[in-house]
Amino acid sequence: MKKLIIAAAVMALSAGVNAQEAEGGAGTIGGVATTTIAAGVVGVAVAAAVISNNRSTSVTPRPEPVETCNPGDAAPVNGVCTGTTVTVTGTGTNTSTTTVAFTYPAIVE
To answer: Angle between the 34-54 and 2-14 helix axes, to the nearest 10 degrees?
Structure first.
């Protein structure tokens, strides 16, 4: 991009150049006016800058991974999900319930 800006600045500055033809064909090189040569050099510089900028590679950033837990469980903390379940043990009138906590790695999406 910097090359293109520099080339554009050179082109803008050289646009105001106005050569006066002097006696004996002064201001020409091989019959070609020096202003024509200068304009050609600026054109080549602009074309080179455009080509140089066109060849750059772009990298698409990867989206940040999202960690999730199973529905009903707590949100992940440092990549670990926690949940609870109720366990019923015993039979008949001799039953008891126990809440058990468990952990598992967060699901990365």
So the answer is: 160
Q: How far apart are CA 32 and CA 10, in angstroms?
A: 21
Q: Closest Cα partner for 11 from 44, 57, 55?
A: 44
Name the more confident of 3 and 92: 92
Q: Percent of the chain having pLDDT more than 70?
A: 65
Are 25 and 32 contacting, i.e. CB atoms less than 8 angstroms apart? no
CA angle centred on 98, ends 93 and 104, rounded to 5°: 150
Token pair, residue 75, equals 């949100």
C-alpha span between 86 and 77 (Å, rounded): 22
CB 84 within 8 A of CB 99: yes
Match 């600045």 to its residue by tokens: 9
Looking at residue 73, what DSSP letter applies? S
